[in-house]
Amino acid sequence: MNKSIPQTPEELREVLAGLIGVEPSDLHDDSVLFELGLDSVTALMLINSWRRAGLTSPSQEFIDAPTVGHWWSLITTS
Predict the structure, then answer these.
(1) Contacts of 75 (CB under 8 A, 6+ apart)
(2) Contact 43, 62 (CB under 8 A)
(3) Closest CA to 40 of 62, 8, 24, 25
């Protein structure tokens, strides 16, 4: 599990693509991660690892809007 917070949108796509089993180029800002195969347990494990690394956005905000673009927004405003 990636323990560091992604520093670029491309890095976020790489992390998520690795978890889902798709190419990073297949992930777009409006891609819904749960529809692509990311399960909630894996998502929470990833988000919690980022929180241990300093992310301050609440985990529930990621779960409520599981798109790549929204996750990047939460990371950059944290």
Answers:
(1) 5, 6, 12, 50, 55, 57
(2) yes
(3) 62
Contact 71, 48 (CB under 8 A): no
| pTM > 0.85 | yes
Tokens of 62: 């990621």
pLDDT tens sequence across 19-47: 999 999 999 999 999 999 999 999 999 99
Q: Please name the residue that has the structure tokens 């692509």.
A: 36
**Positive or negative CA dihedral for 26, 9, 32, 41?**
positive
Amino acid identity, residue 25?
A: S
- Residue 30 tokens, joined: 């409006």
By CB atoms closer than 10 A (0-12, 13-18, 19+), residue 27 is buried
